[in-house]
Amino acid sequence: MPTVVVLDYGSGNLRSAVRALERAGAAVTLTSDKQAALDADGLVVPGVGAYAACMAGLRGVKGPEIIGRRLAGGRPVLGICVGMQVLFATGVEHGITTEGCDEWPGTVERLRAPVVPHMGWNTVAVPEGSRLFDGITDERFYFVHSYGVREWELVTNDRTKAPLVTWAETGPDQERGDRFVAAVENGPLCATQFHPEKSGDAGARLLANWVGGLPTPPS
User: Which of 68, 102, 165, 173 has the fewest CB neighbours in a 10 Å radius?
Assistant: First the structure.
């Protein structure tokens, strides 16, 4: 059974994520311990609330260092909601710019839509070849956010290693809103803007896909 650490840095109620990952087949620990986070087969970085506050909490437990060291060794990391947003270079809220983990170029900014926050169930546009969304077709996922990444800026000439970016739009189906990044698959680094742990069977399948893809040491 793969081991997963949900990084506890003071960002909201994390028990639902822990339970969902356990149901997905992982042995899960909720902790801020650096060594445990480095040693686990998979690391989940959750996040709710303000970008700046999440980054402050993350720095308090050496989160950017943990994420960077894991990725340098090809060790899987999954960001959820603001835990995805902090993986980008910067976040701008109320005119204040905060530096993120800078694993991907790009800016988290307020969505431009008739109704914000974007809250509730929504469909996503998944690229061909996605492993996270394997076996998931025409499903809805649960979002709750006012900010997002509206442009994907990372460019690569190697199509075999190019990140897979999933998109979504705010607003009801009949009213075009604002397009934003809903998920990213980039080697060992994956992330979702939506909450898979709150997204019913589709979210459970996505987490099972991620857990099932974790490399585990031979017994």
Answer: 173
Per the listing, tokens 């530096």 go with 99
pLDDT tens-place string over residues 55-96: 999 999 999 999 999 999 999 999 999 999 999 999 999 899
Q: What is residue 207's predicted lDDT score, i.e. its pLDDT? A: 98
* Three-state SS at 217: coil
The CATH number, out of the four listed (3.40.50.360, 3.40.50.880, 3.30.460.10, 3.40.50.2300), of the domain defined by the range 3-212: 3.40.50.880
Angle (CA) 65 215 201, round 5° = 95
Q: Span 115-123, mean pLDDT?
A: 94
In 70-178, beta strands by DSSP E = 77-80, 88-93, 96-99, 104-110, 118-123, 140-145, 147-149, 164-169
